[in-house]
Amino acid sequence: MEVRLLEKGYKTNEAFYQDFLEDKINTKDEYFSNEVVYIKEAPDFPIYMGKGDEEEKRQNFLKAFHVISQSYLKTERDLLLDETFWHSLLVAHKREFILNHYPEVKEGRSKFYNIVLKKFDWENYIYKSILGAQYINDNTNNEDERERYYELIIENLDLYNYIIKYEIFRNDKFLINILDIIDYLKLSKVLKAKIKGREDLGDDERYGRRVIFEFNKSYPVVMAPMLEKEELKKLFITYLSYYYDISQVISEEDFGDENTREIEEDDDFNRVNSDFFVKNMDSDKLRKEESGELEGQSSILVKKINDEKEEIDSESKDELLTYLGKHELEYIDHRGKGGSLWVIGGKSIEAYLKPLEDEGIHFRYKPVGGRASKHRSAWYWHG
Length: 383
Prior knowledge:
Blueprint: E1 2-6, H1 16-21, E2 32-38, H2 54-70, H3 77-80, H4 83-93, H5 95-101, H6 109-115, H7 125-139, H8 143-155, H9 157-165, H10 172-185, H11 188-191, H12 207-218, H13 229-241, H14 257-264, H15 267-273, H16 276-279, H17 283-291, H18 302-313, H19 320-326, E3 331-333, E4 341-344, H20 350-353, E5 363-366, E6 378-381
Antiparallel strand pairs: 1-2, 3-4, 4-6, 5-6
Helix pairs in contact: 2-7, 2-8, 7-8, 7-10, 8-9, 9-12, 10-13, 12-13
């Protein structure tokens, strides 16, 4: 099949949209360059999934994955990911298909550009379908497995969008491993849910997006696309725990204390993520703490820390629990059982624990906590 490629400037040509509606594109040579490409076949498939209910979208994605897998993946990859090629194919060879299946393009230029001439990136449905089909077909020959991965992409479309949005994660092995982790831990429902009570993150933040955001933030210290699945799983759960109480969905068998040890002792990992909770504290609480309005609660004011340090200097280690209770810090004391002392809380309570180091009491932070803290963020007495 011969496809003439459009000449540059077609997107800004005022007459282009009307000529498409009137079936005049192919009759005007000025729209086309002298470049021609050849593909073996170009069967129809859904090119836009921004309408309909969830089941309709699911069926459209599945059909797109299947048709692309069976026909288009035989085409050279550079051509498959070329915007001009797809726009040329659609306007010159798929006009009837488009008008029959997407009649809303007749309503105006904006609909036409959004469905037919949309920028060819992670927000384009053809682009999403091509990458998904290619990554899955390159990594499995089993039809049942391919179908499982297709379904996982559709179930986790929001997270998938953010994976292919970042170039460093646009990697077939990374995508397959992430989908396997989600499937094994049954996290699809959690990851696409909205995060509530975190106005600092925006009105429409999702747990899955924030996990990918954390992966992106930790790169290149954490080379996530290169990690084996088990190592990737540890990081995935750790990042999810920053926003979600993972004890509700993840068992100790999947992520016990021993599994966190390597992450917990990784200085580079901690350096990348050490300021996360301070940056993302509730803005109103942070403002009040800085202004001194929150008496008896954690504060980051240097003066207040110094005052408390003087109090600690006069206390012995045996009075540690009194100190923690005075500042209304929740703790779990397992020292009598040969365990450790855990103080429950995020990075915001560090200001109270830091002065204790002068007394030889050192606490280490674990964002996912441990069994004692029921995997809530906590600090444990180290050493």
